[in-house]
Amino acid sequence: MIETEVKIKIYDIKETREKLLSIGCQVDREFYREHNIFYDFADGRLKKSRQALRLRRIERKAFLTFKGQPQKSRSFKVREEYESEVKNYRHIRKILKKLGLRPTFDYRKKRMLLRWGRVKICLDITEVGNYLELEGKRSDIVKLARKLGYSRKDFIKLDYVQMIKEKRQRDQSSSSSKSSSSSSGNSSSSSSENSSSSSSGS
Question: 161: which residues sit within 8 A by CB, 6+ positions away?
Answer without folding.
Answer: 38, 52, 105, 107
